[in-house]
Design brief:
- Belongs to the bacterial sugar transferase family.
- There is one protein chain.
- With about 450 residues, this protein is an alpha/beta fold.
- The protein has 16 helices and eight strands.
- The protein has three domains: about 120 residues, no CATH class; about 100 residues, NAD(P)-binding Rossmann-like Domain (Rossmann fold); about 190 residues, no CATH class.
- α7 links the parallel β3 and β4.
- The longest helix is centred in the middle third of the chain and has 36 residues.
- It starts with a helix and ends in a 6-residue tail after the last helix.
Length: about 450
């Protein structure tokens, strides 16, 4: 934001005529223009997925391509804003110079941040546990740059340490965790052991470290922070009961409903030409209804009719057996393949949002037969029905499209994160990231 503002102010100041009152940089609209430029660029960076820190990492080439795309589009939009605020001004020159200063500023800032991080170093972590979970935590700490940590070593519990690599340091249980924290400058402790009963964990030592101010995370808390999901394999009902979150008060419900009405109405108006064109090409492409109605499970386990543009042949389930949709599904029509990839088939659900059956953001609604099956195989599956289902959701922007029980299990972990941490800010974030998913066909079906 500061780079964007500074770039515009410097570029406009260069065009001021000395002694001439009311130069471009001194106009009353300049502050609004600079703020608009910053807002446009931030939104564009978000829309192309450059702020999706918890999603799949991008390669350097992809980052550069998307950044250049955002800058080109941002330059054009800013040029239009500049012409409207200061007509007759050398808008092209100002925008060009602003973009050069912006690129220079971003490079300088990135290099400075990198140098500071190298000088300060990353936090030092002690992992309690030596099993598969401990190894998974160590891998995440090494690969996820957003939560990068230096693993000092592992403190053994009752789990086997057979999978440990020779370069991984395992401390002796004869040493206390308090001593290790003081000796090695440990900044954080992560307990990566599922079984915490039977004396395997030195709870008195962990309590002493916590009281002394050392942060301690369990597996569920770690993965919630690191991956923005709640792992169900190691999840206990007590963690859900006592942890913070699950805000469903009257204020939250009123704010979410207002947000749903405003956004769905606006999107219906903006997408109406696309919806009319889609209805026409569906009618021309294959026989059958334009709108497909299917029973789905919503808030509180109550069923409702979910609306979608028909993307499959009318005999897709002629035997009456519900099936998962798969990639390259033979039942999908030519038009259906396109509207599924671009998510256009979901647009009629905006009507369900206006009616109050769905929300703009929430877990995707499933069919009753699938819900019955998944409740038997996935722990805490019913928790997703404590909020309204959504047109888009946290699982949709964080996990690629899947069509199996295992995929549903992984998506449920993201849905649990949303249910636990749902807020207006998270709803806005999901909508912004949905733009990136649609534009670049991430998780396409």
């Amino acid at each position: 934001m500061l780079c964007f503002l500074a770039a515009m102010f410097i570029a406009s100041a260069l065009r001021m005529v000395p002694g001439e009152e009311g130069g471009l940089a001194m106009q009353s609209g300049m502050m609004w223009l600079a703020g608009g430029f910053a807002a446009v660029m931030l939104l564009l960076y978000s829309f192309v997925g450059l702020y999706r820190s918890g999603a799949k990492p991008m390669g350097l080439g992809t980052i550069i391509q998307r950044a250049l795309l955002a800058i080109v589009v941002g330059a054009y939009v800013t040029y239009l804003l500049l012409e409207s605020v200061a007509g007759g001004s050398p808008g092209g020159y100002v925008v060009g110079v602003a973009m050069l200063y912006l690129l220079t500023g971003l490079v300088v800032v990135r290099v400075a941040v990198f140098m500071v991080q190298k000088a300060v170093g990353v936090p030092r972590v002690l992992i309690v546990g030596t099993g598969a979970d401990a190894q998974g935590v160590a891998r995440d700490l090494a690969t996820l740059r957003r939560i990068e940590r230096h693993v000092v070593g592992f403190y053994p519990t009752s789990e086997s340490a057979e999978g440990m690599r020779p370069d991984q340091r395992v401390f002796s249980r004869e040493r206390s965790i308090e001593e290790l924290v003081a000796e090695h400058g440990i900044d954080e402790i992560i307990v990566a052991a599922r079984e915490q009963r039977g004396g395997g964990l030195p709870m008195d030592q962990l309590l002493a470290c916590r009281i002394a101010g050392t942060p301690i995370l369990d597996l569920a808390g770690f993965y919630e922070r690191a991956r923005a999901e709640v792992p169900i394999d190691s999840l206990k009902a007590s963690w859900l009961i006592y942890s913070q979150g699950f805000v469903q008060g009257p204020a939250r419900k009123a704010a979410k409903r207002a947000f749903d009405v405003v956004t769905s109405a606006a999107l219906l108006v903006l997408s109406s030409p696309i919806m009319l064109l889609t209805a026409l090409v569906i009618r021309l492409d294959s026989p059958g209804p334009i709108i497909y109605r299917q029973e789905r499970v919503g808030l509180g386990g109550r069923s409702f009719m979910c609306l979608k543009f028909r993307s499959m042949t009318v005999d897709a389930e002629k035997d009456g057996v519900a099936r998962w949709a798969t990639q390259n599904d033979a039942r999908v029509t030519r038009v259906g393949a396109f509207i599924r990839k671009t998510r256009i088939d979901e647009l009629p659900q905006l009507l369900s949002v206006l009616r109050g059956e769905m929300s703009m953001v929430g877990p995707r609604p499933e069919r009753p037969s699938f819900v019955k099956q998944l409740k038997e195989q996935i722990p805490f599956y019913d928790l997703r029905h404590s909020v309204k289902p959504g047109v888009t959701g946290w699982a949709q922007v964080r996990y690629s499209y899947g069509a199996s029980v295992e995929d549903a299990r992984r998506k449920h972990q993201y849905d649990l994160y949303y249910v636990k941490n749902n807020s207006l800010f998270l709803d806005v974030l999901v909508l912004i990231e949905t733009v990136s998913v649609v534009l670049f066909r991430e998780g396409s079906r």
